[in-house]
Write a structure and sequence with these properties.
The protein is mostly helical. The chain has nine helices and no strands. Helix 3 packs across helix 6 and helix 5 (about 105-125) packs antiparallel against helix 6. The longest helix is centred in the first third of the chain and has 27 residues, at about 10-35.
């Protein structure tokens, strides 16, 4: 005969792993608070507290370099990527090409996808996840190429603009912008 359970016992049994995790996080927070150092006067240096082993393991995993070989790879890959996306646009096969399908949905969708990938890249960079930042950066560059193809922009146009700016201070370049652009942008943060 099966053992009868009270209502809610099954829910409590499932919640136990989550409760354990919350307790572990609580312990970590207590350790961090206990070891938080106050600034010392006169430039004295304090001994840095050793982090718990599980935190050191996570940091080591997140901060370790990717094992992607970059031998024989250079920036020309961006030109080749642009060519591939352009070929997919010209072929227009939305059943087999993600690039063609994306561009067929319109410029707004192309721009939206680029924005989503850029935000994901920013999030990964902000939390210090190096491996994910590399992966998301590749997504950003791919979607940038889709934007260029959709807008009819060739990579050499962008490279020429970068070459024109080379050696010019960003501060000086912003100061040289026409005031009409600044007014149109509706902000005083540009100069």
């Amino acid at each position: 005969m099966a053992k009868a359970t009270k209502p809610g016992e099954a829910k409590r049994a499932k919640a136990k792993p989550a409760e354990k995790l919350m307790k572990k996080l609580s312990v970590i927070e207590k350790i961090a608070k206990k070891k938080a150092a106050l600034p010392l006067p006169g430039g004295l240096k304090a001994k840095r507290a050793k982090l718990p082993k599980r935190i050191r393991k996570v940091e080591a995993r997140v901060l370790e370099p990717l094992s992607i070989s970059s031998a024989g790879v250079d920036a020309m890959i961006l030109d080749r990527l642009w060519e591939t996306v352009e070929q997919r646009r010209l072929a227009g096969d939305v059943t087999t090409s993600h690039s063609a399908r994306l561009m067929a949905r319109g410029t707004a969708k192309v721009a939206q996808k680029f924005g989503e990938e850029a935000v994901e890249c920013v999030i990964e960079a902000t939390i210090g996840n190096r491996a994910a930042t590399v992966l998301e950066s590749a997504d950003v560059l791919y979607h940038l190429m889709v934007i260029w193809v959709d807008a009819g922009i060739r990579p050499d146009e962008v490279w020429a603009e970068l070459a024109r700016r080379q050696g010019i201070s960003g501060i000086a370049e912003k100061a040289a912008r026409p005031q009409g652009i600044i007014r149109a942008a509706g902000t005083t943060k540009l100069p």
